[in-house]
Amino acid sequence: MKIITKKLKVLVIDDDPVALKLIANYVKATDGLELICQTTNPRKGMDVLKKSEIHVIFLDMEMPGLNGMEFLAHLKIIAEDNPKIADVAVVVCSAYDRFAVDSFHYDAADYLVKPIFFERYTTAVKKVKQRWHRLSLNMLSSDNDCLMVYTQQGRLFRKLRYDDILYLEAKDEKTWIWISQREYYEIDDILKHVLLLLPRARFARVHRSYAISLAHFEFMKGNEIGIRGTSAKNIKMGRTGDYELFKNWLSENAVKGRYIAHAEDNKKLSN
């Protein structure tokens, strides 16, 4: 059975029709990219961005009405209230290099100086793809809530809901997805690749061999992580590695306090 790989959705904005067509044709010729809109009007581009799912923008700098730097500034403001827009990768396209420093202050993925040749364009695309892979974002519809696990022959499918996943464990070239203390799905792919199929907001890697469901996280004591429903097993936090997503999630949701369990009052009130 062939598995469909989700494509990065692209918006191209350039007031020069020739330059616009060039980049649009590059995008159409690139595996893993899907051209959603090409426009000479930056305000129309902003409207498309707000209404559609966009992963990548190729953005010209010198445009009438709303120039590239103004577009980036506005993008930063609306991204604060829209998590999807916050992850959009912007590749700046300009005939001049004088905008480079300021554009990178807005976290541009790359800066292309015109004329843009295909070889240089592919380097920018590689950076964009690497950025999205680091995000480990499930690029399916935001309404999607499951994986479909199928046999090698593709004859049997089982629906695996995100809510049922407790944690994931790397086992050589396979991944075990645990759904209870005794039950798991064995997936024929490495942990890194399986995580790319899961929503970043719900799962985080905490060790080179483990990723956890944030919804089932129960406690962390020292470097031990407790997962609800797995009392016999605590996962150790990795000492080395890039686990910033989990660390940021902890710090952003942290409040100082203590856990108190009140003993049940066994005294019976007499009439």
Key words describing this protein structure:
28% helix; 5-stranded parallel beta sheet; 5-stranded antiparallel beta sheet; alpha/beta; 271 residues; disordered C terminus; elongated; Rossmann fold; OB fold (Dihydrolipoamide Acetyltransferase, E2P); 2 domains; 27% strand; 15 strands; 8 helices
What does the model show?
- InterPro entries: 2C-system_Tx_regulators, CheY-like_superfamily, LytTR_DNA-bd_dom, Sig_transdc_resp-reg_receiver.
- The protein has about 270 residues and is an alpha/beta fold.
- It has two domains: about 130 residues, 3-Layer(aba) Sandwich (Rossmann fold); about 110 residues, OB fold (Dihydrolipoamide Acetyltransferase, E2P) (Beta Barrel).
- It is built from eight helices and 15 strands.
- The strands form four sheets. A five-stranded parallel β-sheet has the order 2-1-3-4-5, with helices on both faces. A five-stranded antiparallel β-sheet has the order 10-9-8-12-11. Strands 13-14-15 form a three-stranded antiparallel β-sheet, with no helix packed on it.
- Strand 8 and strand 9 form a beta hairpin.
- The chain starts with 7 loop residues before the first strand and ends in a 19-residue tail after the last helix.
- The C terminus is likely disordered.
